[in-house]
Amino acid sequence: MGLWSFVGRSEELDRLFAAATDGGRGLILSGSAGIGKSRLLREVVSRLPTDTYAVWSASGSVSAAGLPFAGLAQVLPADQPPGLSPSALLRWAVESLRQRAAGRPIVLAIDDAHLLDPSSAAVTNLIARSGQATVLGTLRSGEPVPLPIRALWADDLVVHDELSPLDVVDSTGLLMELLGGPLDPTSAERLWRLSEGNPLLLRELVIAAQSGQELTQTYGVWRWTGRLELAPSLTDLIDTRIGQLSPPVRGVVELVAFGQPIGLRLLLRTSRHADVEAAEERGLIRVDIDDRRQDVHMAHPLYGEVVRRRCPVTRAQRLQAQLASLVEQAGARRREDLLRVAVWRLESNTADDPAVLLDAAGRAFTGYDIPLADRLAARAFDVGGGFDAAELRATILMFRDEPERALATIEAVRDEVTTDERRSRWLMVLGLVAYWGLGNESTLEDLSAGARELTDPADRVRVDSFEAIMRLHRLECDAALRLARAVLDRPAASHAAHGLAQCTIAHLQAAQGDLTGSGRAIARVEADAAHWRTELPYLQLALELGRGTRLVLAGDLPGIEAIVAEEFADLADAGDFRLGSGYLSVVRAQAARLRGRLDDALRHSLQACATLATGRVYAGLAHAERAHAAALRGEAAQAAAAMADSDRAQTPGMAILYPWREQARCWVTVAEGDVTGAVEMLRELADRLRTDGLAGHEVMVLHDLVRLDRADLAVDRLTELAKVVEGPLPPLVLRQAQGAANGPYGALLRAASGFAGLGLHLFAAESAAMAVRRQRLARSPVTGQTNVLLGRSLGQCVDVRTPALLAGQPNLTEREHQVAKLAAAGVASREIARRLFLSPRTVENHLQRAYGKLGVTGRAELTEALRALPDEPGATGPGRAGPHPPGGRTVTG
Predict the structure, then answer these.
(1) Residues 768-807: tens digit of each pLDDT
(2) What are the sequence ranges of the domains in the chain?
């Protein structure tokens, strides 16, 4: 793995470039080793034009720090004049640089300026003070700096700032560069935290993970297992920073490595003050003070990793048992202390209380830390946790995509099902595992029969709520609604049972177009979360599915952004709760598709496919969304392959998702060139949705008919649905349909404007493109307003190739396109003629033909009209990438 491309650090790069070119103060950046200072300095030097600036690079080094002018040896003449005094030598050096510049402004870029020899440091100060050069430089934080260099910022000749670590976004960009492809967010976040945004450490971590074959790739997405074989280069680097430790100081560091964060008072109970102070002074630990709390952490996460790896097993177990005892004796005041004590007991092999382990496993599951919850629940079962431990572990195994082991675990305690209360819980876990995990449809009837045998109303209603949501997923909507309403009518129902029933109703109402009712049901479940989360943490999945369905059908993009930014999304990613993070990736993909950002849509859908690859629940939906995005990009083969994957992954138990899947299938058919076949498929799908009463989905499918220029088949039904389906989309879809069905093209423009106001830029661009086409067919001039709307909407889209955008596009010749582009840029006709070796008359002829084909009246309208053309560089016509922000987002190592 060689030097990576420069990505990121755009703000710092811009500051360095500005400092070098504006003739004012220079800029020196400090930072820790490996933070990317040198790479950043090299990058700005490479971008400075040497015909305009005299750009010279120099660097300090330990080996040459005692040799006069060694730091500037690369830029000064090889032979010094003999017999000069020290001051004369300084003047000679400055004059030599000035003469070599030949009148150009000097930019002196010095890497590791803290290691400059005294003579080079003095020359740097002198030439900056004379105003003949701008100094750019880097320093290592914490190292002594020569006085002439320190004087540069003291005298306001340069700005001195600290270079901060990479943030998670830039770190992820660097990881993508190192791996040559996307990395799943959980892995990216873990590697970023472990490296603390240090590019050098990040690179070493990737090398170590690759060497240990701990990075795997699924559907093009890299995933890190979390295990790490520390490469020699990495351990040597960290060992150098840690250095040799006395046994007492090592004891402090080891306690913190296993116990972080550990309260300072607890640490001082077992360690001498002097040893704790020594560890802090060496930069191995840090004390974070927050109000009255003083918590001790390792100074860097990798320090803790190395210390834990180097610690003998017996000592590691002793230390963790000691930590557990310390916190227990202190009273375990904080809620998270109970979980930490259980983990220390588990790791030290002193965990023998099933009640404590079960409580800890439940807390871990409530926080969606699936691997930790599984370990704790397994231990609880092994030490005699019985039915309760088996129930919890079977549930957790289901969410680890291990349904066979889950089934064996719950079946192992069948003989312990001696009460109705246990039987109701046993039936629910069995249903969860067998129905969703193993795809056994007969489980639903077994669950229903088992519920009828229960005598206690609270036990019966618990199972009924579970049966309701299972029937919804099997598309037995009437039965699901009847059961859910019955659960809500029963006062004996628990908070979890009420929550499941509300989620069932919310999902169904959203699909039916009752967005207000769905929203109210979702709000009630959210308000009651504190009560149901402990009893049934995975109810969150039902909540997210109902909420996600409602928001996507409503076209509520801000609402989607809100849910993917909530705590659950972070917990699901961090805790390897794959069903949660996988479904949220699907929702992200759907939102990106509605925006017209098909690059993001494909990326998120691939992420969902990779996350859900080993399960059965949402995998079919993830592949369908991948197919939909690829189809809208015009990638027929990829779309067809993804649809085939969706068909293989789909299970009857997830039939409620058929509208999304079949809609994607229709667009795959479009991408394959069979628009007529796709139209017939959409008509059949709309009829099926009408029969099933899923009016919210029906609006979206009828809209697809409009987008394929068959508004005549949809306008009458859309007129009916606009009266009953809630939200801003139905009226806009109807308006577009009315305009497309030979109505006034102004209706298409109003629809486009409405879609754009919601951020639905793909729909806005298509509606505007239809208006442009109508105007051209009518031989009426395309208004500037139309072109502006179309251009702006296309400017927000990426990689879009749909029939509405491709149909009727003007076919400019290459010469007409050249002339029109120059005219749009404000170049006069005579200058265009000179550049293209044409006569002015020929230029005007080309322009008039271009005006006619584009439907514009003059130069003022050309810019926006040309944005709709697929060959316009920098525009986002079909098949083209959208505009990039100024400076681009880049990440450096």
Answers:
(1) 989 888 877 776 665 667 777 887 888 888 888 999 988 7
(2) 10-162, 168-229, 555-649
Query: 482-538: per-residue pLDDT in tens?
Result: 999 999 999 889 999 999 999 999 999 999 999 999 999 999 999 999 999 999 999
Give, as one character, the DSSP assignment of residue 8.
B
Amino acid symbol at 164: S
CA atoms within 13 A on the CB side of 54: 15
Helix axes of 578-595 and 598-611: crossing angle, nearest 10 degrees: 170
Phi, psi at residue 111, to the nearest 5°?
-90, 140
What is the spatial distance between Cα 405 and Cα 396, in angstroms, rounded to a whole number? 10
What letter does residue 848 receive in the DSSP assignment? Answer: H
Token pair belonging to 701: 């499918």
Measured in degrees and rounded to the nearest 5, phi and psi for residue 134 equal -100, 130
In order of 420, 463, 483, the CA distances from 453 in angstroms are 9, 11, 16
User: What are the tens digits of pLDDT across the range 9-19?
Assistant: 888 888 899 99
- Give the DSSP per-residue string, 115-159: G--HHHHHHHHHHHHTTSEEEEEEEETTS---HHHHHHHHTTSEE
Indicate the DSSP class of residue 711: G
CATH code linked to domain 555-649: 1.25.40
Joined tokens for residue 393: 């572990």
Q: Is 102 exposed, middle or buried (0-12, 13-18, 19+ CB in 10 A)?
A: exposed
CATH code that applies to domain 10-162: 3.40.50.300
CA nearest neighbour of 793 among 759, 825, 770, 824: 759
Q: Diameter of the chain by CA atoms?
A: 109
**pLDDT averaged over every residue in the chain:** 88
Let me know: does 721 contact 698? Beta carbons within 8 Å: yes
Q: 682: closest CA among 656, 657, 664?
A: 664
How far is residue 607 from each of residues 130, 165, 186, measured CA to CA in Å? 56, 26, 11
Helix, strand, coil tally for the chain in percent (to 5): 65, 5, 30
Q: Residue ranges of the alpha helices (H) in 555-674?
A: 557-564, 567-574, 578-595, 598-611, 619-632, 636-649, 658-671
Q: Which residue type does 105 have?
A: P
| CA triple 363-366-371, angle to 5 deg | 80
Residues with Cβ within 8 Å of residue 563, at least 6 apart in sequence = 544, 547, 548, 551, 569, 584, 587
Contact 607, 185 (CB under 8 A): yes
d(CA 621, CA 643): 10
